[in-house]
Recover the amino acids of this structure.
């Protein structure tokens, strides 16, 4: 990611529940949204970064703001299972539909990719093979992925931090498969829906080795 001008505004959407945020802080010292905020502030030190928790009943943007005022929205990982009908999953999916409708570009990792797919009118499922934990091995870009900006600079195959019990098994109309591996067919994708665009990966490019270890614990 290139350096960003100080006028940029980013919104981190952290769909962990309060209980999951507490558990993650006890394990690695920060919630998934706090991890994203840390890395965004390092990559774009002059940008304004806000956070919202769309799974929470009282989630709200800063007063007077709208999604269209942000340059990008970032969706974090989450333990939510989107095939379960709960208030948390419904609120999270509704938020992502609002992001698509706003036209603000979005990026998400792990559950973020799953949220975007469900918001585009499709579904996700439990992993068909087994838990992919620690690292996703030999992620291989497709022909479309090799020319896509999301994977610019990536080698012909690469490993990345990953831990997920659910997966995107196929992509909705208007989406482009960018990468996959032996365990997970959809490791990276572009999804276009309702005038918006989302880029994302099933893996976690934002986390460090300490968080990999915490997840495994």
């Amino acid at each position: 990611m290139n350096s960003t001008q100080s006028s940029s505004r980013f919104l981190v959407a952290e769909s962990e529940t309060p209980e999951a945020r507490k558990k993650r802080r006890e394990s690695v010292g920060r919630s998934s949204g706090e991890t994203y905020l840390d890395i965004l502030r390092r990559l774009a030190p002059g940008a304004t970064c806000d956070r919202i928790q769309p799974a929470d009943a009282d989630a709200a943007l800063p007063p007077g703001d709208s999604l269209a005022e942000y340059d990008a929205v970032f969706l974090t990982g989450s333990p939510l299972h989107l095939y379960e009908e709960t208030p948390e999953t419904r609120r999270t999916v509704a938020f992502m539909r609002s992001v698509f409708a706003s036209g603000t570009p979005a990026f998400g990792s792990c559950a973020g990719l799953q949220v975007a797919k469900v918001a585009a009118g499709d579904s996700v499922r439990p992993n068909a093979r087994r838990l992919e934990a620690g690292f996703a091995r030999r992620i291989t870009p497709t022909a479309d992925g090799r020319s896509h900006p999301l994977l610019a600079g990536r080698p012909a195959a690469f490993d990345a931090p990953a831990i997920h019990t659910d997966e995107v098994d196929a992509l909705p109309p208007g989406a482009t498969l960018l990468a996959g591996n032996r365990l997970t067919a959809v490791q990276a994708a572009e999804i276009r829906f309702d005038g918006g665009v989302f880029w994302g990966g099933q893996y976690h490019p934002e986390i460090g080795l300490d968080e990999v270890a915490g997840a495994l614990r």
In short: Residues 1-5 have pLDDT under 50 and may be disordered.
